[in-house]
């Protein structure tokens, strides 16, 4: 634990620094820290280490093969390219760091007794920092003061998680001037959603600290004039910096294969060098006398043949170094950058509604997109739009269908289709589209709804007309605020019942037990729960997000600690009544007020029957910029409803002032949908503070609930609760909403109901469950709404446990969870809601195409089973003819038995289908008959997943899933999602892709081989954790089927070509050793030898790897079956690697021995013999590349011709000036003489033809007699459009038959 000790600022000087500065780097430090680390990163690559070793080896005189400077050229060239690239990146990063480090903020100076300007890099742990509106927070700090009357600070966390909705943070209510306490908090970590710590005062009282008190670095202060905080984490130890780990690197599957093949090349090199060493020793031993070329050493002694062979082994390594392709890694990086550039500039990935396109965040795994075998997809926001629309609800067992709202949605869908057809033009002459104007659905839907709207009460019509006249859309910039989500048309029957609720009837309903009275109470509490059981931030139209330049930071007003102290006095920290609950006095030996003060510090307010929050607010000085003044209309007066009196302005009708112009900023679309649904019924959330929530309830007036606790939603509880003191009954009430899978188990039973309402509650529970099942079958997202009334004694007892959990550091999460579950029991069911989330455009077609491509798709969702299955059918993940197996069990043994039974059923059905097809006969059976197979799907829930993921059941579970065409995992937690992905990846050795849009998908995105984030409605957490980010799920189709196929085939062909050309060229030198006594000499100039692979033949394969296109994008989209070619690594099988090496050996033999036999017996010198070999090798390699190219463009032609011209220009130049370059060689005028010799041209032509003839003939025969699917698809481009359509249709029919047959084969049990 880190202890931050701060003594009184007036006296003490003791301060513990946790981190002094941020990235305070100068230019030299930047290159030293980042440049050297990148340099070392690339030196770690085996090839670079190998060449570094060769450079050092060539400096040893006994084994020297080249000039020392020449051997350094390859390594220097490669590292220079890398250094330039990384240097530019480092300099850009340095400038950004410098800009951030020198931002100015206000830090309190003990010496000057005031706030002074200080750079961010000088902000220390323990400093008091003052911030103003729209200022960026420079460090993680605990909030001590806010100018907001309720002690709230609104922050925007878009820079951290992408969410633009405002978050509330509350002060820990500590006076900075009198601060002499000890802060103890957890060690720095990257968990943005958790902060644990406490403040220990001098009297040993502890005050718990949580994330609600923490302002994170990088967030922006909004709608708050001034805040003061104390820094607890600074610099690199802030949560934002710990989360910023830089670009994440993954090793692609192809890269792992390339490293393996390079090891084979190393073994081949060692074998060739060993052959040279042995051959050199044998050759020397054959001489009876000392040969003239065997020069003795400085001591006059000769090396024995064995030692000479040992030296020659290292000389041969230097000579044949090109066999290890050092330039391959650099070429691969360049090719990947080119492929990423083409992907990012594909116009088909642009999504106009969000003005976004694809983001490639991982630059080194693009080829993995072509090998995906499993896709794990989230449902909400990934397959659906994540636009939650309120559709239905059930209250007290009575369902309300909201037919008018359904007609409104149909009207919206018609508008959306018109918008797409007219490219976002106006759909109609009377009103613009909903995209342009928020509330115009009423104008468009008026002809549809006029008749039905007359059935509504006249009072509601008047209210609607007033709202239309004065309301303007001000939430277009916020999430979950589109008109389709915010504009809800109430149900006629429910609206009529709602209009009968009055203050008197509501009070009577709590005492009476009649059915009508209970229904009145249920309806009122249901809508109150919708309005207040959330974390929605309310803001007025004048409080929109204001984004300003960073330069405005310097214009903050300066306030001293004395001024802050005066503000604290005006703020009156302790606003609570001094009359505590009796149970509190009994449970603690401390004074009641001190106990209440301790609770109030961390936001837990004990309510008093005499507390009048409304009068208290009115008595406070007005702040024109506070949220309440801009949210609550001036003509509405708050009254003391807690005192027991009926509000003087409460009425029993809907005839109230129009709904105020409020903006709701929610953390999830479900919350926003429910709040807007309550708002449609005139249950309007007016304001929210840490202490209270104000709701304008038609018939009851303005109700101010004292907010005691908020128990937020989490994936374990799957629910959230708010604890309030009800202003009408003055009782502590718990409102809870959550998944029906957990909520139904928390309801109180008949034995626990001590009134005559037990039978009514049981009927309500049964009817609500029936309605929930119906909602799930319709594909709606369901939520149960419940409440619980507590006595003061029960609440005080629970509060003691909560206080201990809040102030604990060890096992704090477990204690808080236990505390929440202790409260959320014996609930009374109020009703349930059904919210619709439409499928995204093109999802069914995308899933069908991906399935035809041989990719298995799993849906992992937290929704209940019926909803998940319904969406699976809608998106064609499951089909009506599929047999669905549901895996649901309560124990591990039962789960194993169920899976075994399902496997037997699949095998039995498969054998029956097989016998039927055999009786029909394969020869006479029609394609449709042959295609009849047995398809199955598996549905499993989260509780059963706990058993399935146990080690003993993993194998049988995977065997079962392999026999199913689709798997749907419902009610799964984020951890279970990631474990499933890891299980399939590790056990099946399959390439996996995970796609999601929310924070709950981050873990599975990071675990998968390839993670894809969808930039949707739930922030940018998934995008920031992903390798690729797209806007719509349908973009996954082209990303995989087209770009994935292209990236893989291009890169594999380029890698194989690199191996081919390096082995070919090295073998030329190796064959020559048989004619020079294995002396390690070369028949060509060393400059040309070193630069041949580095310059003359390096650019064409890069262009080949970036631009080659074996099949057009249209054909790949039409025929997803072609994806299996890259999925199965057909282009880069081990056999393809060895065949490439054998071809390289053959071409090197031809390239060497054709010139050898041509010039045999002549008197040409060594370089005159090597020049035609070198030139022929260049032509062979470049024309070999042309044979392998599937599409030759003008760029290919220019690069190949340019490489040939560059080679001739370079050799002519070096031949004319070789005496100044390399005095030891005699390449003078060699190329100039050959340019005038016809034999030279004949040798080059004959060598090239003989070497490439076998490969050319094989390619021709493959394309005509044994065409591959890719060759057939390439042929389709040459057909006319009509012929192409017929051929594609015939091909699809064949593929469907083959797929069904294969599915049957895989379903048959192995013998």
Question: How would you describe the overall organization of this protein?
Answer:
It is found in: Endoplasmic reticulum membrane; Membrane. It comes from Taeniopygia guttata (Zebra finch). Keywords: ATP-binding, Endoplasmic reticulum, Magnesium, Membrane, Metal-binding, Nucleotide-binding, Translocase, Transmembrane, Transmembrane helix. By secondary structure, the chain is an alpha+beta fold. It contains 47 helices and 33 strands. Helix 6 runs parallel beside helix 35 and helix 35 (1035-1073) packs antiparallel against helix 41 (1166-1188). It is elongated. The chain starts with a strand and ends with a helix.
Q: Which features does this protein show?
A:
alpha+beta, 1311 residues, elongated, single chain, nine-stranded mixed β-sheet
Which structural class do the helices and strands define?
Answer: alpha+beta
| Strand line-up across the major sheet | 14-33-32-31-15-27-30-29-28
Radius of gyration: 38 Å
Distinct helical segment count: 47
**Average predicted confidence as pLDDT:** 75
Estimated share of beta-strand residues: 5-15%
Low-confidence stretches: 5-44, 420-477, 544-657, 917-932, 1303-1311
Task: Write a compact overview of the structure shown.
By secondary structure, the chain is α+β, with helices and mostly antiparallel strands. Helix content is 48%, strand content 13%. Strand 16 (389-395) and strand 17 (398-400) form a beta hairpin.
Helices, strands, pairings?
Elements: E1 2-5, H1 27-43, H2 46-57, H3 68-101, E2 104-109, E3 114-119, E4 128-132, E5 140-146, E6 152-156, H4 158-161, E7 166-170, E8 182-185, E9 197-200, E10 206-209, E11 214-215, E12 220-222, E13 226-233, H5 239-243, H6 253-285, H7 305-319, H8 326-344, E14 359-360, E15 374-377, E16 389-395, E17 398-400, H9 403-421, H10 441-453, H11 458-470, H12 483-486, H13 492-499, H14 503-511, H15 515-532, E18 537-539, H16 561-571, H17 582-587, H18 592-601, H19 613-619, H20 627-631, E19 663-665, H21 669-680, E20 683-688, E21 692-697, E22 701-711, E23 719-725, E24 732-738, H22 740-743, H23 758-777, E25 781-790, H24 792-806, H25 812-823, E26 828-836, H26 843-852, E27 856-860, H27 865-874, E28 883-887, H28 892-920, H29 927-930, E29 936-941, H30 942-948, H31 954-962, E30 966-970, H32 974-987, E31 992-996, H33 1002-1007, E32 1010-1014, H34 1021-1025, E33 1028-1030, H35 1035-1073, H36 1086-1096, H37 1099-1107, H38 1113-1118, H39 1123-1127, H40 1134-1159, H41 1166-1188, H42 1194-1216, H43 1218-1221, H44 1230-1234, H45 1238-1264, H46 1269-1276, H47 1281-1307
Parallel strand pairs: 15-27, 15-31, 27-30, 28-29, 29-30, 31-32, 32-33
Antiparallel strand pairs: 1-8, 2-3, 2-4, 4-13, 5-11, 5-13, 6-7, 6-12, 8-9, 9-10, 14-33, 16-17, 16-26, 18-19, 20-21, 21-22, 22-23, 23-24, 24-25, 25-26
């Amino acid at each position: 634990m880190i202890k931050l000790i701060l003594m009184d600022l007036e006296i003490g000087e003791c301060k513990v620094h946790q981190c002094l500065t941020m990235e305070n780097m100068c230019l030299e430090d930047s290159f030293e820290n980042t440049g050297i680390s990148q340099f070392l990163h690339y030196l770690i690559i085996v090839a670079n280490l190998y060449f570094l070793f060769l450079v050092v080896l060539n400096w040893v005189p006994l084994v020297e093969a080249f000039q020392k400077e020449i051997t350094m050229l390859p390594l220097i060239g490669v590292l220079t390219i890398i250094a330039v690239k990384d240097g530019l990146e480092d300099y850009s990063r340095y400038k950004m760091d410098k800009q951030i480090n020198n931002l100015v903020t206000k830090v309190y100076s003990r010496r000057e007794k005031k706030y002074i300007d200080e750079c961010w890099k000088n902000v220390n742990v323990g400093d008091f920092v003052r911030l103003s509106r729209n200022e960026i927070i420079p460090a993680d700090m605990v909030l001590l003061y806010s100018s907001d009357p309720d002690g709230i600070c609104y922050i925007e966390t878009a820079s951290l998680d992408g969410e633009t909705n405002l978050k509330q943070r509350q002060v820990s209510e500590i006076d900075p001037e009198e601060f002499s306490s000890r802060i103890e908090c957890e060690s720095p970590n990257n968990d943005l959603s958790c902060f644990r710590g406490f403040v220990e005062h001098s009297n040993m009282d502890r005050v718990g600290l949580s994330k609600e008190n923490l302002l994170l670095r990088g967030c922006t202060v909004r709608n708050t004039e001034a805040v003061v905080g104390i820094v607890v984490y600074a610099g690199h130890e802030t949560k934002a910096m710990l989360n910023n780990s830089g670009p994440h690197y993954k090793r692609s599957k192809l890269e792992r294969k390339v490293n393996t093949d390079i090891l084979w090349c190393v073994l081949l090199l060692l074998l060739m060098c060993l052959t040279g060493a042995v051959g050199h020793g044998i050759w020397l031993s054959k001489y009876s006398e000392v040969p003239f070329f065997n020069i003795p050493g400085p001591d006059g002694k000769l090396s024995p043949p064995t030692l000479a062979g040992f030296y020659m082994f290292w000389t041969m390594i230097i000579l044949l170094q090109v066999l290890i392709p050092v330039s391959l890694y650099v070429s691969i990086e360049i090719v990947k950058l080119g492929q990423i550039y083409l992907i990012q500039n594909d116009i088909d990935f642009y999504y106009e509604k969000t003005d976004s396109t694809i983001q490639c965040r991982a630059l080194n795994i693009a080829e993995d997109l072509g090998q995906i075998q499993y896709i794990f997809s989230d449902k909400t926001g990934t397959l659906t739009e994540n636009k939650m629309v309120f559709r239905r609800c059930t209250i007290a067992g009575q369902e309300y269908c909201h037919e008018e709202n359904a007609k409104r949605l149909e009207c919206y869908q018609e508008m959306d289709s018109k918008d797409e057809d007219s490219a976002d033009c106006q759909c109609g002459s009377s009103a613009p589209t909903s995209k342009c104007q928020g509330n115009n659905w009423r104008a468009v839907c008026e002809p549809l709804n006029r008749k039905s709207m007359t059935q509504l009460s006249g009072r509601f019509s008047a209210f609607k007309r007033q709202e239309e006249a004065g309301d303007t859309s001000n939430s277009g910039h916020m999430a979950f605020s589109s008109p389709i989500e915010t504009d809800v048309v109430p149900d006629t029957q429910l609206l009529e019942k709602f209009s009968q609720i009055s203050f008197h009837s509501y009070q009577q309903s709590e005492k009476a037990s009649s059915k009508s009275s209970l229904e009145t109470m249920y309806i009122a509490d249901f809508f109150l729960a919708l309005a207040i059981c959330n974390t929605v931030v309310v803001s007025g139209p004048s409080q929109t997000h204001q984004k300003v330049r960073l330069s405005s930071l310097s214009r903050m007003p300066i306030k001293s600690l004395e001024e802050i102290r005066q503000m604290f006095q005006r703020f009156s920290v302790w606003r609570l009544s001094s009359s505590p609950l009796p149970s509190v006095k009994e449970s603690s030996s401390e004074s009641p007020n001190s106990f209440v003060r301790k609770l109030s510090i961390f936001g837990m307010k004990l309510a008093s029957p005499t507390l009048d929050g409304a009068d208290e607010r009115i008595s406070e000085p007005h702040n024109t910029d506070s949220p309440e003044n801009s949210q609550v209309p001036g003509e509405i007066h708050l009254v003391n409803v807690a005192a027991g009196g009926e509000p003087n302005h409460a009425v029993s009708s809907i005839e109230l002032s129009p709904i105020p112009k409020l903006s709701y900023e929610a953390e999830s679309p479900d919350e926003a949908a429910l709040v807007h649904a309550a708002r449609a019924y005139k249950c309007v959330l007016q304001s929210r503070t840490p202490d209270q929530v104000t709701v304008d309830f038609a018939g009851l007036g303005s109700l101010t609930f004292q907010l005691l606790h908020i128990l937020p939603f989490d994936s374990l509880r799957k629910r959230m609760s708010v604890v309030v003191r009800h202003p009408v009954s003055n009782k502590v009430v718990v409102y809870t909403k959550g998944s029906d899978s957990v909520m139904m188990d928390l309801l109180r039973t008949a034995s626990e109901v001590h009134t005559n309402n037990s039978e009514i509650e049981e009927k309500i529970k049964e009817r609500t469950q029936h309605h929930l099942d119906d909602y799930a079958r319709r594909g709606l997202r369901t939520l149960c709404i419940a409440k619980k009334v507590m006595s003061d004694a029960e609440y005080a007892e629970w509060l003691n446990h909560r206080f201990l959990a809040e102030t604990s550091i060890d096992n704090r999460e477990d204690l808080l969870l236990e505390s929440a579950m202790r409260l959320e029991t014996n609930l009374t069911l109020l009703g349930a809601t059904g919210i619709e989330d439409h499928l995204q455009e093109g999802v069914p077609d995308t899933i069908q195409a991906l399935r035809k491509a041989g990719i298995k798709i799993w849906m992992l969702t937290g929704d209940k089973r019926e909803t998940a299955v319904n969406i699976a059918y809608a998106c064609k993940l499951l089909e009506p003819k599929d047999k669905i197996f549901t895996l649901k069990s309560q124990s591990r043994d039962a789960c194993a038995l169920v899976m075994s039974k399902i496997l037997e059923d699949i095998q039995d059905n498969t054998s029956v289908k097989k016998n039927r097809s055999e009786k029909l006969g394969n020869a006479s059976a029609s394609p449709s008959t042959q295609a009849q197979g047995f398809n199955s799907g598996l549905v499993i829930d989260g509780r059963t997943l706990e058993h399935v993921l146990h080690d003993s059941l993993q194998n049988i579970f995977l065997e079962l899933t392999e026999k199913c065409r689709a798997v749907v995992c419902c009610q799964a937690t984020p951890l279970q999602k990631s474990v499933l992905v890891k299980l399939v990846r590790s056990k099946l050795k399959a390439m996996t892709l995970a796609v999601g849009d929310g924070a709950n998908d981050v873990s599975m995105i990071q675990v998968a081989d390839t993670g894809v984030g969808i930039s949707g409605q739930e922030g940018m957490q998934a995008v920031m954790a992903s390798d690729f980010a797209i806007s719509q799920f349908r973009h996954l189709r082209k990303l995989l089927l087209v770009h994935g196929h292209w990236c893989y085939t291009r890169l594999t062909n380029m890698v194989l070509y690199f191996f081919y050309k390096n082995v070919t060229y090295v073998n030329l030198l190796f064959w020559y050793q048989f004619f020079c006594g294995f002396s390690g000499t070369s028949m060509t100039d060393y400059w040309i030898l070193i630069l041949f692979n580095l310059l003359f033949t390096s650019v064409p394969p890069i262009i080949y790897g970036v631009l080659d296109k074996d099949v057009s994008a249209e054909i790949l989209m039409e025929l997803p079956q072609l994806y299996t070619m890259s999925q199965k690594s057909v282009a880069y099988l081990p056999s393809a690697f060895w065949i490439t090496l054998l071809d390289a050996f053959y071409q090197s033999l031809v390239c060497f021995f054709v010139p050898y036999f041509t010039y045999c017996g002549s008197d040409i010198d060594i370089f005159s013999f090597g020049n035609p070999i070198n030139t022929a090798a260049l032509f062979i390699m470049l024309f070999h590349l042309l044979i392998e190219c599937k599409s030759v463009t003008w760029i290919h032609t220019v690069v190949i011709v340019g490489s040939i011209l560059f080679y001739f220009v370079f050799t002519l130049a070096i031949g004319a000036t070789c005496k100044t370059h390399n005095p030891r060689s005699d390449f003078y005028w060699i190329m100039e003489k050959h340019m005038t010799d016809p034999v030279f041209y004949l040798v080059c032509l004959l060598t090239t033809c003989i070497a490439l003839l076998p490969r050319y003939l094989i390619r021709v025969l493959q394309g005509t007699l044994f065409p591959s699917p890719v060759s057939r698809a390439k042929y389709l481009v040459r057909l006319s459009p009509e012929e192409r359509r017929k051929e594609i249709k015939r091909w699809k029919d064949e593929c469907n038959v083959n797929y069904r047959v294969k599915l049957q084969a895989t379903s048959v049990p192995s013998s």
